[in-house]
């Protein structure tokens, strides 16, 4: 078991050596420019901040390996958090039931994406763009465009609590999900099927891979993760806000591509995605510590996404406008 663990760790380092090197260089530069960066409090803060993106990026990794994309995850974060808080504050629904209903709507929206894409063979870019607007519309219609504040400690502890008074619960959730999805993608038939479909959909079909079922399941999982992120985020923010989530999908996509997930499908690893998330998070944290305007931060993130896609394109993968979303 120890030999296998060592081999797995060595393989992870080898497969992500480039992005690990970039991450280390960034940390060295930021530690020089800001003495606060390497403090324990700041590093924990970074992990807490990136945990939300990890939720989304894990689902996005599966979808992109499959050859698709999901633009609706940010809106699902908003609608799930808004409805969950609203159910508790405005409708008097118990916390467990409200959370279940909030997560359920995310699952249903993800399932809707999967059904439409798999059954009707429509481009995922268009379908998930439509679902993004549907989810945003639901959040704004239910809330009337207003935020709902919640002060119930039982609920807010979901996002603000700490394990042993040290480890933020969102970070704990993040670690658990990373382990689950690494096993799911690397050690199960379901994960093998995802790679097979992303690599060659027709060959996978002829080999007996249930492509439609896998595709529906992957988009449903993405909706589930986005909904969970919405609940945790609303608990951290002490409110359900229909305006949150804007641009979250782009951060998740950027993290995946930075981590080596091909936008053409068939290639990618959870470990790479996690390093990609860390780069996005550290860039944001570093710019905040240096007092850089949020407007400039948007510019920097945009350039990072562009560079990541250009690097991916140079790996010999064809990247048409539709990102190989449908065949």
From TrEMBL:
<feature type="transmembrane region" description="Helical">
    <location>
        <begin position="163"/>
        <end position="185"/>
    </location>
</feature>
<dbReference type="Pfam" id="PF02653">
    <property type="entry name" value="BPD_transp_2"/>
</dbReference>
<keyword id="KW-0472">Membrane</keyword>
<keyword id="KW-0812">Transmembrane</keyword>
<feature type="transmembrane region" description="Helical">
    <location>
        <begin position="17"/>
        <end position="38"/>
    </location>
</feature>
<dbReference type="InterPro" id="IPR001851">
    <property type="entry name" value="ABC_transp_permease"/>
</dbReference>
<protein>
    <submittedName>
        <fullName>ABC transporter permease</fullName>
    </submittedName>
</protein>
<feature type="transmembrane region" description="Helical">
    <location>
        <begin position="97"/>
        <end position="118"/>
    </location>
</feature>
<feature type="transmembrane region" description="Helical">
    <location>
        <begin position="270"/>
        <end position="289"/>
    </location>
</feature>
<keyword id="KW-1133">Transmembrane helix</keyword>
<feature type="transmembrane region" description="Helical">
    <location>
        <begin position="295"/>
        <end position="313"/>
    </location>
</feature>
<feature type="transmembrane region" description="Helical">
    <location>
        <begin position="216"/>
        <end position="235"/>
    </location>
</feature>
<feature type="transmembrane region" description="Helical">
    <location>
        <begin position="73"/>
        <end position="90"/>
    </location>
</feature>
<feature type="transmembrane region" description="Helical">
    <location>
        <begin position="124"/>
        <end position="142"/>
    </location>
</feature>
<keyword id="KW-1003">Cell membrane</keyword>
